[in-house]
Amino acid sequence: MNTEVTLILEHIGKHIHLTGDEQDYFVNLLQAGKVKKRQFILKEGMICKHSSFVNKGCLRGFTLDKNGFEHVLNFAPPGWWIGDMYSMITQKPGVMNIQALEDTDILQLSKVNQEILCTKVPKFEHFFRVITENSLVSTYQRLTESLSFTAEERYLNFCKKYPMLIQTLPQKQIASYLGITPEFLSKMKKGLLKKR
Questions:
Q1: For strand 97-100 and strand 40-42, is the pairing parallel, antiparallel, or unpaired?
Q2: How far is C-alpha 167 from the geometric centre of its chain's CA atoms?
Q3: Rounded to whole angstroms, how far apart are CA atoms 126 and 10?
Q4: What is the mean predicted confidence (pLDDT) over 16-25?
Q5: Global confidence as pTM
Q6: Looking at residues 148-174, what average pLDDT do you find?
Q7: Which terminal Cβ of the chain has fewer Cβ within 10 Å, N or C?
Q8: What is the largest CA-CA distance in the chain?
Q9: In whole angstroms, what is the distance from residue 142 CA to residue 163 CA?
Q10: Distance (Å, rounded) from C-alpha 65 to C-alpha 193?
């Protein structure tokens, strides 16, 4: 099996069982890409036409407010999907920017090919429903956390959600995700270490 598609097939295999022919059909619909550090695969105002699966590296999804401040919505490390769901579903211009935090290898599935895939291999309907439901749950949790949780609680949840990113992400990115300053994050982490 091509190592480029091993991770995505393992990921899909957790939700649905594919025959060899179904795997081949799916793989032929994917488009492989390499994204350089700081390069965008989607910018605000564009229509999202692909879901992107990260094979290696890391992407981040963020919005910009009217003052130019970034608000990180999510990260996509290896094994994660990312896209602007609103724009993908409505095919209207979105507000999300998706950018590589490091050199990143992705596999993209276009909206058109996703629809073809679900028609030809109906079990993918189930797979994409699960992925969409997980994304909705994650968005709901993120909204609840930002409205009701302390910065410390949000940080501890971030550590559970993205354990592989704690040591590798710049503090600035984590702070933006949490809605706090990098200085406050640094101070809070020192306080947590003292509690242990």
A1: antiparallel
A2: 18
A3: 16
A4: 96
A5: 0.92
A6: 92
A7: C
A8: 56
A9: 16
A10: 33
Sheet of 104-110, strands arranged across? 31-35, 104-110, 50-56, 81-82
Identity of residue 113: N
> 187 is written with which tokens?
């101070």
Is residue 96 within 8 A of residue 87, CB to CB? The reply is yes
User: CB–CB of 93/48 below 8 Å?
Assistant: no
Q: What is the pLDDT of residues 171-193, one digit of tens each?
A: 999 999 999 999 999 999 888 88
Q: What are the distances in angstroms from CA 27 to CA 77, 87, 131, 141?
A: 20, 24, 18, 32
d(CA 84, CA 44): 10
| Angle, in degrees to the nearest 10, between helices 123-148 and 111-120 | 130
Phi, psi of 73 (to 5 degrees): -95, -40
For residue 140 the two structure tokens come to 């709901």
Coil/strand/helix, residue 119? helix
